Amino acid sequence: MIKILFVCLGNICRSPMAEYVFKNMIKEKGLENNFYINSAATSNEEEGNGIHYGTKRKLEEQNIPYGNHQSRKMTKSDYEKYDYIIGMEDSNITNIKRIIGEDKEEKIYKLLDFADSINKAAKNEKYSNSRNIADPWYTGNFDKTYEDIVEGCNALLDYCIETHNL
Ligand code: 4NP
To answer: In this structure, are residues 11 and 26 in contact, taking their beta carbons and an 8 Å threshold?
Structure first.
């Protein structure tokens, strides 16, 4: 079982979008039993709140099902529970490390690390070379966020299929 936690600042826009996009992809490939997927926040700003309307609208437009989500701030113990902890932008990585401490097992990635090529996920290229996924809470552009999340999730799934021999 490959356990992935998608993380953003509020856990109402980007990380739930990534969670449900990725869940839909693995379902379409018949791989859902190989994964445990969840999402969380680095802040408690939106604690207990549901998915942002813009994310819901985008998921509905794409016929991607979503669950009864409630924002949750990640905890230090998530580091033991998950194999991959995937932020959306550099500031998420900084905040994740503040919660977790040192990334001893190199579990922390940025989603678009996986995108351009599998080599982008090579350990010493993490964080620095890939784009950030803009926060639609500020930009209002849920279409661009969705495009980037699909790109990242497709690449992440290819990476998992190859790395874990699925
Ligand atoms: P998200 O967007 O990190 O993609 O869920 C945000 C949601 C809420 C806030 C910031 C970003 N906020 O400051 O409450």
So the answer is: no
Active site residue 103: no
Q: Give the separation between CA 73 and CA 30, rounded to whole angstroms.
A: 30
153 is catalytic: no
Per-residue pLDDT of the chain (166 residues; tens, 9 = 90+): 999 999 999 999 999 999 999 999 999 999 999 999 999 999 999 999 999 999 999 999 999 999 999 999 999 999 999 999 999 999 999 999 999 999 999 999 999 989 865 555 555 555 557 899 999 999 999 999 999 999 999 999 999 999 999 9
Nearest to 145 by CA among 153, 137, 136: 136
Please identify which of the residues 13, 78, 113, 135 carries the catalytic annotation. Answer: 135
Task: Kindly state if the Cβ of 13 falls inside 6 Å of ligand 1.
Answer: yes
Closest CA to ligand 1's atom 9: 10
Nearest by Cα to 125 from 117, 113, 116, 115: 113
Evaluate whether 107 touches 79 at the Cβ level (below 8 Å): yes
- What is the CA(81)–ligand 1 centre distance, in A? 24
Could you confirm whether 8 is annotated as catalytic?
yes
Report CA(59)–ligand 1 centroid distance (Å). Answer: 17
